[in-house]
Amino acid sequence: MALPGCFYFSFVVNALVVVALATSNVPHLTTNYYDDSCPNALITIKTVVQAAVQKEFRMGASLLRLHFLDCFHNGCDGSILLDSTSFIDSEKNAKAIQYARGFDIVDEIKEAVNEACGQSVVSCADILAVAARDSVVALGGPTWEVELGRRDSTTASPAASDANIASPFSNLSQLITNFKSHGLDEMDLVVLSGAHTIGYARCATFRDHVYNDSNIDPDFAQSELESICPIIGGDFNLAALDPTPANFDTSYFSNLVQNKGLLHSDQQLFSGASTDALVQQYSSDAVAFFEDFALSMIKMGSIQPLTGDQGEVRVNCTKVN
Ligand code: HEM
Ligand SMILES: *[C@@H]1O[C@H](CO)[C@@H](O)[C@H](O)[C@H]1NC(C)=O
Ligand SMILES: *[C@@H]1O[C@H](CO)[C@@H](O)[C@H](O)[C@H]1NC(C)=O
Ligand SMILES: *[C@@H]1O[C@H](CO)[C@@H](O)[C@H](O)[C@H]1NC(C)=O
């Protein structure tokens, strides 16, 4: 499905997601949060993201994934960005986060934004949310207005990361349960997995699927994947998560319909169960995919943020103030 990307740039999905906060005096996220304190914040982030993606398209995928990892670990609070110190046990050591990339670009963005604002007012958690949106747009996907006002955590906890971040070896019911534990439903699971329309995965994450699963196209497994991912060794070899890893498009879903998902967890979404119909729909309906993706990203970005006087705005994303 190759419609011109510019068609979708016109999509602006307004933030209609109402976040039900437990107490009404906790401040909500808002799209105009930095309008007074740093009017150039968003354009500054976009400029750095665009340059980084221009230089290496995979960086767009890596930045999108960082926001997901952050939100699924104790809420979108920038905790995954902290480096280890004698007080902090970095989440960068967690199994699920160990090989994530893009941390250097986040640091670059933070430096540029601090300078553009003349002070440190933009949180690292917000930078991740905006960089994720700008990355999707840079690779031809939909745009949306990012809700802002998250504050940064002063703690990290790698053990919790591994427990909270969905595994590529999970079956469908485990994936649904994992998303539910973060307040996301089955539809969010399917549409947000569509993020795998960009980027790559390491052999270690899909080897079992290639050699041990029956719901994988045998020709795809043998002629495309076995050489990249031998039974033994080559753990760090990369395969694209869909055939067009530089384009945010529907081919992730059309690929699943052909039993050509890369990860076991990807193919679980089209495996004869409750999510098949939605995968089938997105495989041929880019408008629905783009619209729903934008709404679910806003929902994911609203997972347990720190707001008001909770946490802090880190000066340097790698360490607490
Ligand atoms: C449904 C549960 C999910 C599982 C099990 C999962 C698992 C994975 C795994 C194993 C990789 C490869 C990592 C590596 O090789 O080190 C990956 C890559 C990626 N994931 Fe997911 N993921 C899930 C959901 C998401 C969501 C919700 C997003 C964003 C909204 C996302 C965005 C990405 C992106 C963009 C990449 C490519 C990163 C790159 O090339 O650097 N994933 N995912
Ligand atoms: C952030 O802190 C790290 C570790 O101390 C340092 O290497 C880096 O240069 C700092 N970044 C900025 C933008 O000051
Ligand atoms: C999914 O995996 C869990 C844990 O291994 C297992 O208990 C459950 O039966 C599996 N569900 C399905 C539908 O295969
Ligand atoms: C496949 O399954 C077998 C039997 O459960 C297991 O020993 C093996 O490690 C699995 N993975 C691969 C890549 O063969």
Provide structural commentary.
By secondary structure, the protein is mainly alpha-helical. Helix content is 45%, strand content 3%. The chain has helices at 5-9, 41-55, 58-72, 103-117, 124-138, 158-164, 172-181, 186-193, 203-212, 218-225, 251-257, 264-268, 276-283, 286-300, and strands spanning 12-13, 143-144, 200-202, 238-240. The protein is globular.
Domain count: the total is 2
**Gyration radius from CA atoms, angstroms:** 19 Å
The 3D shape can be described as: globular
List the ions, cofactors and other small molecules found in this model: protoporphyrin IX containing FE, 2-acetamido-2-deoxy-beta-D-glucopyranose
| Spatial ordering of strands, largest sheet | 1-2
Structural class: mainly alpha
Total strands? 4
Helical content class: 40-55%
Amino-to-carboxy terminus distance: 48 Å
Indicate the proportion of strand residues: under 5%
The run of helices and strands is: HEHHHHEHHHEHHEHHHH
Low-confidence stretches: 1-24
